[in-house]
Write a structure and sequence with these properties.
The chain is an alpha/beta fold and 714 residues long. It contains 18 helices and 27 strands. The longest helix is centred in the first third of the chain and has 33 residues.
Length: 714
């Protein structure tokens, strides 16, 4: 899009030309993920990882976002997005933009990554390349391990077209009856209960340096089809894979038991909704293709022809290969110096250091995965569970793992007689089933489990610990940007604030009363809470920078988040830019704001960082005439976060914490290795260091700084 100059004071900031499309912006984010798979600077196995992430991201995109658009088209919804597109226009543009990206990935995997893997001793073989000994081995493997699991399904007047499960890999098989000469169609599902890649034993691996050699499961099945169709002539076979609508359709207001209602919806999801995408081998003939289209009621625009291996998300399994030189250098999160004594304390010590003493000395900011989640958040909750002075623990759980030490700590706390409340969000997408399982475990242990508010997802990340200290009650809190999940804490960049500030403790008490009881709490002392006051406070903070700039004072806003979609927030940022406020946005994923338009957004810069870790922290900085206010929390600037979720944003009032947060923002903005800059037309351009400029990889710098701080160098 050309740069448009607008200087009139009566500019209509709701004009669609000033907005980027949400879905297309997400595709641009996934293009940046794809770039990591293509970039020769990325270690080889990490490139495979990014190829798998790109593919997995697409699956979820179709199951949710494309599903919603498809439902709108079917319901003849004509409402336009802020950028002026109808649901059908969006579907058409998604296909047009996505097909070249998918083709590029598969071509790169076959022509570049696969040969490079072979050079490193990793041989993902095709059946045609196998020796006779390898084929005999696979035949025996097939008969013993694979054949008993398979179920060939015929398609004829006596056998209706079988149900094809979501994300399953399948063989479309054409056989000929030697007696009637009729050609018949059948489907064979590639079982996901078996490993996708079959490993050859050492004695059958190729000569030379071989670390691993294997073959895709589907090829073994395809070359042994005569066992499934004895007496028939195998004419041809082709691989295909489908994606179905997997979004939950939940009427909470009509559900007597939310847990039971979600379980029923999960059963429906397993059956699957309508088919949204068909991935099929590009070599499949028109007859096979048309059979699949007709039976699954698909159009040509829903078909994606694939050259080579289907379902590249399974490449993630190769990350377990013992090839450290082909991966990022290992990183172990460090223990912050202030937490060292807490983590080294033993029961034998007469007066061991505890978390509560440490927090009373001052607020502590922890930055994951650079600083240890285990040594900070898990240790805090674990100590609270066993501390005889702790009376109650209350926390929200959006996504976690069933074997999480945090879940075990909550169970232990309940067994120790403490009042324990866990607000479990059952509607956390694709984690619903997992959440139900461990929510029941918590209930069985005596934990008070609450499932949130009707019509709202509880997305906030907070812990409240109530402790008896002498004759007084003290409250200790953790407010974070990420889930209480030890697995993702090693992969996502997140922040957490540990504090015993009285006002924040009182605010969290009110927030939990709002979540667990009947409360119409409309004001908080420090917290910005959605859907209560977060939107209004954010708009007011932006407006304050506008007023200061109009008064001749410098105005500045820096915001880091996952996504920027909310139209009223974007309009207010445009107003701020036009008033002279300098705005820097670090938006990992979707950004619907269009920067760089003269007279509208020429003071707004947007970057996205895609690197080794998934950028997940949210930080909001407002200059405020040099008396800066800076916040962290769980919310992005999206309608769902501001209006349809329970979120909590906390101010950083401690000067050291505020300084650390500002440094994180400044280092992120200075990144010239992993950062991409958004252009007015919606495209992203990757930053490169100038000839006289050093390379600055923010994530690498954070690792170095965390290590130096831990050993006391800085």
């Amino acid at each position: 899009m050309p740069r448009v100059k607008q200087t009139a004071s009566d500019v209509n900031l709701t004009d669609p030309q000033y907005y980027l499309n949400r879905e297309l912006s997400w595709l641009e984010f996934n293009r940046r993920v794809l770039h990591e798979a293509l970039d020769p600077r990325t270690p080889l196995l990490e490139r495979l990882k990014f190829a798998a992430i790109f593919s997995s991201n697409l699956d979820e995109f179709f199951m949710v976002r494309v599903a919603i658009l498809t439902e709108k088209v079917q319901a003849q919804v004509s409402q336009l997005t802020p950028d002026g597109r109808s649901p059908q226009q969006q579907l058409d543009e998604i296909g047009d933009r996505l097909r070249p990206m998918v083709a590029n990935l598969h071509r790169h995997f076959e022509q570049a990554l696969r040969p490079k893997l072979a050079e490193q001793g990793v041989h993902l073989l095709n059946y045609i390349d196998l020796t006779q000994e390898q084929r005999l081995y696979l035949q025996g493997y097939f008969e013993k391990r694979i054949f008993p699991v398979l179920t060939p399904l015929a398609v004829d007047p006596g056998h209706p077209f079988p149900y094809i499960s979501n994300l399953s890999l399948n063989l479309a098989v054409v056989v000929q009856d030697p007696e009637t000469k009729d050609e018949l169609f059948a489907r064979v599902k590639v079982p996901n209960s078996l490993p996708r890649f079959i490993t050859f034993p050492p004695e059958l691996q190729q000569n030379g340096r071989t670390v691993w050699a294997g073959i895709p499961l589907e090829q073994v099945i395809a070359h042994n089809l005569e066992f499934l169709f004895p007496g028939m002539h195998i004419q041809e076979y082709f691989l295909f894979r489908i994606t179905r609508d997997a979004d939950l359709d939940l009427e909470e207001e009509e559900a007597d038991d939310l847990l039971q209602a979600i379980e029923q919806e999960l059963r429906k999801r397993r059956l699957g909704g309508s088919v949204l995408r068909l991935e099929i081998q590009a070599s499949a003939p028109e007859t096979v293709r048309q059979t699949l289209l007709e039976e699954m009621e698909l159009s040509d625009r829903q078909v994606y022809e694939i050259e080579g291996l289907l379902n590249l998300r399974d490449l993630m399994s190769l990350m377990s290969l013992p090839l450290p030189d082909l991966k990022d250098p290992p990183w172990s999160a460090v223990i912050p110096r202030r937490l060292r004594a807490v983590n080294e304390a033993t029961p034998s010590q007469e007066h061991p250091e505890d978390f509560f003493t440490m927090i009373r000395r001052g607020d502590l900011l922890v930055h994951h995965p650079y600083e240890s989640f285990t040594a900070s958040v898990e240790r805090f909750i674990g100590q609270a569970a066993h501390d005889p002075q702790v009376l109650a623990i209350k926390m929200t759980l959006y996504r976690t793992s069933g074997d999480s030490p945090i879940v075990q700590a909550l169970i232990a706390a309940a067994e120790n007689g403490k009042q324990v409340v866990a607000l479990v969000e059952l509607k956390a997408r694709f984690d619903e089933e997992n959440n139900i399982l461990w929510a029941r475990k918590l209930e069985q242990a005596g934990v008070h489990v609450v499932y949130g508010l009707v019509g709202l997802k509880t997305h906030t990340k907070v812990v409240l610990v109530v402790r008896q200290e002498g004759s007084e009650i003290h409250r200790y809190v953790h407010i974070g940007t990420g889930n209480y999940n030890p697995k993702t804490a090693n992969l996502y960049t997140d922040l957490g604030l540990l504090t015993c500030q009285q006002e924040l403790g009182a605010d969290l008490t009110d927030l939990f009363n709002y979540l667990t009881g009947y409360s119409r709490q409309q004001s908080y002392r420090r917290l910005l809470v959605a859907p209560v006051n977060l939107r209004d406070r954010m708009l007011a903070l932006i407006e304050r920078e506008i007023e200061q700039s109009r008064s001749g004072n410098p105005g500045q806003i820096i915001a880091k988040m996952n996504s920027l979609v909310d139209a009223p927030i974007i309009q207010k940022l445009y107003e701020a830019s036009r008033a002279g406020v300098q705005i820097d946005l670090i938006v990992r994923g979707i950004c619907c704001l269009r920067p760089g338009i003269e007279g509208i957004s020429d003071r707004i810069r947007v970057i996205s960082i895609v690197g080794r870790f998934l950028e997940h922290s949210r930080i909001f900085y407002f200059h405020n005439q040099g008396q800066a206010e800076i916040f962290i929390g769980s919310a992005d600037w999206m309608p769902r976060n501001l209006d349809r979720r329970v979120e909590a944003i906390t101010p950083a009032t401690d000067s050291d914490v505020a300084q650390s947060l500002k440094e994180i923002l400044d280092l992120s903005l200075a990144d010239n290795r992993r950062a991409w800059e958004l252009q007015p037309d919606g495209a992203y351009v990757q930053r490169r260091p100038a000839d006289d400029e050093p390379e600055r990889d923010a994530q690498k710098i954070f690792m170095e700084q965390a290590h130096q701080k831990a050993i006391g160098v800085v």
